[in-house]
Amino acid sequence: MTEFHVRTSKRVEALNITGQVMNAAKGHPGKILHVYTPHTTCAITINENADPDVMRDIIEALDRMVPAGHPYRHREGNSDAHIKAVLVGASVSIPLSGDTPGLGTWQGVFLMEFDGPRERRVQVTVA
Q: Taking the complete model, does pTM exceed 0.90, yes or no?
């Protein structure tokens, strides 16, 4: 397993971590690449990396579905972040060709921050 750290700068944002994920896979040939974050208020996803408006639209849609201002029971005030992280998920798996992730032409790997700014860990495993 390889681990890298990502520093987020906003409460909610999508950070393209495709380059870091590809670097973590280099020199580790296998069949599958697993990308995981061990946090409960951020997530990992794959989506379009060509047009940044796509990720902005996703963030806005999640905000409409799970509003921050709802009267949640969790006292820390970040229940919306926990719920969004559950909806998006903590990990993705990507097929490998040697040590190259088999992402589509327009695909990128993103860390979705829902409770920042924070320093986040991302773990990459090749099997």
A: yes
